Fold each of these.
Amino acid sequence: MKTSFAKPGLPTTGIVVVSANAGSKLSATASKLNKKTGGALTRAIKASNFEGKKGQSLNVMAPAGTRLDRVMVVGLGKADEVTELEMQKLGGRIYAGTKQGIKGTVAIAVDAVKDVKMSAGDIAAEIAYGAQLRSYRFDKYKTKQKPKDKPKLKSITLHCTGFAKARKNYTRLGKIANGVFFTRDLVSEPSNVIYPDTLAKQAKSLEKLGVKVQILGEAQMRRLGMGALLGVGQGSIRESKMVVMQWQGGPKSRGKEAQPVAFVGKGVTFDTGGISIKPSAGMEDMKWDMGGAGAVIGLMKALAGRKAKANVVGVVGLVENMPGGNAQRPGDIVTSMSGQTIEVLNTDAEGRLVLADALHYTNNRFKPKFMVNLATLTGAIIVSLGSHHAGLFSNNDQLSERLTKAGTEVEEKLWRLPLDEAYDKMINSQAADMQNIGGRGAGSITAAQFLQRFVGKTPWAHLDIAGVTWSKTDAPTVPKGGTAFGVRLLDRLVANHYEKS
Ligand code: BES
Ligand code: MN
Ligand code: ZN
């Protein structure tokens, strides 16, 4: 969808959007329009339950005295509800409410709001960003869509004072949206299309934005001793890969200043469970078991797109977990790149095996300031937190707090769970240094304890995103399907703390 910004004022035809505060107090532009229509807006408000609350809207169709097709009045709520996040959601709701209404553009009048710090331009940029995020669709495989099933709306125009500055702010937000869309595409693609090699090639496309991209194949990973990752992929005919992405937007020196931050993603392009095979019902969901890797790749796109002033490394471990004549067996013992040995008691606990080598490799090669990994790691996190928080596990309170705050700011919420020696003991093995599953309880925590054994003393956080990577319901800025959870969150983490301005 195209987005443009223009000076205050509204077109005389088509669909226009104006606003009202809590108590249905019309904005300046809305008042003008109300007069022009002989009070049609106030009458419509009186005849409905519209009170100008946030989330409310009212449509006045073809008002007399104008050539307009529709006036949509949206509620802003109280002054303290006019926030960055709420304006994004408003943009999403405007998109959803008008996308079938008209071919071409919808005009949105954004007026300054009394007692609100954000300027009209700031509000306009956030509305535009929210509308853009909501406009995502994955319909490339639908060959028989009728025009009426597709959105007619092709662009929005935001009218406000300070529109040039709004346009500039939006340029940056649009780059983040591009990263989000890239992740949503990767996560939505089926596993016959996206597998380790093709996912690596998608990551390689970031080179045109200035990201350095290296792809390691099985021979290289074998030389590096990545027995944990390779064991997971050995039952698949698809070659396992590891992709290393580097964005150098920060200091170029070799000292502490230039030390990068690192993001690591689980990229199981399909998880059958392997020999410990999953039940068939719902197994199709396991196409998005690469959601962590997808988020890291989209994050790198967002950061490079907006030329973030930070040094960032993204590493993704890409494998397909299949049963087969060469598949890993329960009871196999593998040696990880760190030298630690692992007894694989359940081949369906594969994500941690992939991350064990990806985390060790990243730590060893880059000595990063911190590592954050993202993984659709456990079904148990869905039992604990459902789909409204991702699980956060960390060995570092400051990193945890920064992540949690960034998550609140972009509404990708995190909830911290404990790590503890007592849980760590649960993965000690009789035959090897550790086993890849714990006992009956605390499944998400024992998975996190497992990862912790591969990060040394580096500040580290693990985000278990199994419950939030895919959504079954539309939210204002996240249509159902792949959410790209983590892209906006980690972009914000970098912007808040790791960019020199
Ligand atoms: N990819 C799954 C976790 C998952 C489950 C993600 C449901 C999204 C939705 C992971 O590889 C897995 O299979 N975990 C097992 C671990 C168990 C064998 C210890 C699980 O959660 O059942
Ligand atoms: Mn699994
Ligand atoms: Zn998995």
Amino acid sequence: MRTRNKPWAKDRLDEFPSIVPAIPQEHKGKWNAVFGNDNPIHIEVGMGKGQFITGMAVQNPDVNYIGIELSESVAVVALDKMIEADVPNVKLLTINAEILADVFEPGEVDRVYLNFSDPWPKTRHEKRRLTFKKFLDLYKTVLPENGEIHFKTDNRGLFEYSLWSFSQYGMLLKYVSLDLHKSDFEGNIMTEYEEKFSAKGQPIYRCEVQYQE
Ligand code: SAM
């Protein structure tokens, strides 16, 4: 996501510890206590500017949401949306998804969302794609048995690669759409990228996949 560097972003994020826990690793195994309930926890990896995760939190008050975003300059935009929404069931973490297993106990996350992940089209960058085997291993570590990934993108190449990667991993394809906005899928919350690309007439690809033992 192209956003100018905001040197003040970290200070701003630190001002809201109720939304941005300072040391996420300290809450490993105790995220339900952070939210103050036993509701399921859904995470979005590569949350960007937060429209999806905040919208989902408003739409589904009985689910706890955690947005994960590498860039503080991007996450600070999501923070403003969360402050404005003023709901207790959404938090954000400015971490690299590579440390997910340091932040969540096995089975602590009930669902992983990936939305418009960076496509990294060059073969030599395959390892950076959020649907590369290494990341599928990580999500599996924090999800329960038969946990699910819900994935959407405008990028046909990334979608094709990801279906292949999920299949190589032995995952079950539970739902697939090659044109989400013309499908019968209900309750879709658009991301910032989704709004941008669908406005240009590009179809949105979406799938739900489930880990098998
Ligand atoms: N999901 C948002 C949307 O649909 O509007 C943002 C999409 S943007 C193309 C991808 C985002 O993923 C970027 O903001 C990037 O910083 C973040 N990202 C990429 N790799 C990541 C990683 N390993 N851990 C956390 N965030 C990551």
Amino acid sequence: MIVLGIESSCDDTAAAVVENGRIVLSSVVSSQDRIHARYGGVVPELASRSHIEAIVPVVDEALQRAGVTLADIDAIAVTQGPGLVGCLLIGLSFAKSLSYVRGLPLTGVNHIESHPYAAFLVEKGEEKEAPSFPFAALIVSGGHTTLLYFEDYTKYRILGQTIDDSAGEAFDKVAKLLGLGYPGGAAIDRLAKEGDAAAISFPRPLLGKGNLDFSFSGLKTAVLTHVRGLNGPPDEARLKNIAASFQEAVVDSLVTKGLWAAKETGVKNLVVAGGVASNSRFRARLEQMASTEGLKLFIPPPKYCTDNAAMVAALGTCQLERGFLAGPDLNAQPTWEGF
Ligand code: KG4
Ligand code: ZN
């Protein structure tokens, strides 16, 4: 089955063509980072307008790069939520129209649930082991920090999530206050490589045994308080130490709870996805923990960690195979029960 995936839940317009729920024939992502950078965060109205301009060219490019036409597409999967309502509606309206005029089956996908499906993706001709069920999934993005337990395809339950900021949001807010631009996760990652992670002791909240929720807003405030307490702006060396110490606090919380989730559910497979999963220190610490604890770790390559439509098509294919079909009344779900 060849599925066209469409994603527009936040600030990336994405389309992908995926075969049999795994083989990526194409994955096109049009990022709006440049549009939102001057505001230091996503401006919903600007994001919606940008999706309107990008959606047709992005889908066109995805078809072209895959070497297919609409006649080769068997079904459409589109992100239904959670996300910004104006943004979701652009992808949904486009997908519903295309489904209607071409007579193609349609399915609506939960964006958060779709992130771990990035771990199933392979390039054409690539051999890679897929995660086997059951597994625990840690989804760490700009919008969410969530632990899920996957019993089987399309069957999951929430184990824990952030009670305030997401980890990506913490990276972006700290980057902003350090003057590193937006989005700042990758900049902190680079800077931290040359810093001392033990230089400053930042808080690691909610590390009470068994608690699978996260909290990052106190950490962000602790960094702000630390910077304000300095005599003037931090010099380069100090900046590197702040970046490394902050990053280590986030990574500690994430790695600890990823392990606890696996232990609590008794699974041997851990999937980690979302934009923050491209962080080099996080990946290294996860590898280390997995080898010590005897866990099998699945982290998609960075291009499938950040938002993309290939993961939407992958989950969409599983839903279509199980008969989860949507009609013209498919509506956006900006908030999704439980998330
Ligand atoms: O999954 P994603 O592309 O979008 C959302 O669904 O939100 O995640 C974006 C987030 C941003 O907060 C960005 O700063 C963060 O991922 N990010 C990183 C790195 N690359 C992207 N955070 C830490 N280290 C990185 N290398
Ligand atoms: Zn995402």
Amino acid sequence: MQVKAEFMLSAVSATQFPRPGPPEIAFLGRSNVGKSSLLNALVGTATARVSSTPGRTRAINFFLITGERSAKKMIFADLPGYGYAKVSKSIAETWPGFIEPYLAERSGLRLCVCLVDANVPAQESDGRLLDWLRSVRREFIVVATKIDRLSGNQRARNLGALKKALDLEEILPVSAKTGYGIKELQSRIESACSSHGDG
Ligand code: GDP
């Protein structure tokens, strides 16, 4: 996937979202899970630079992604990291209020890419997010980040434990550092965008 990423806007309320158009992919994960690094690995450096700008960490940052060899476009939505608080009853307590309606209602949103750290046991906040996405019937894929830090045995053990704890049929291991799994994730994203016929 040779692509160009162009920053569109930072939204802190639903009125600021871009008009729905191209198929959209949302990226979610706890702070420090490796989301900026993964976005960089997928599309280049512009995304992380924008996301780390002060004030934009509580916003949804939208990027227009254009394929170099085709006119196909999609939108990547980089959501704020969640889960600073160890125990919190709902996702909304640690998240700005416009996030849940975005995930539940946004038209054009084809897939949520949910990041968990392959080196860290499943967290309550991750489980809560996935249960919530299930409850609103939003399609998602769970990606295990920083897989390069684990040896073969540890990999299998940690991935198995994450799948079990989060009740998943599959989890996609990736490394922004080595590029492991990036092509697979790109192809999942592309097929989510084209599966509805208008991507
Ligand atoms: P974000 O807060 O979710 O955007 O996370 P960052 O992308 O800023 O990454 C958080 C930390 O994890 C940084 O120190 C990164 O260098 C590190 N990191 C991110 N991705 C990887 C990876 O694939 N492998 C390794 N070993 N470290 C990573």
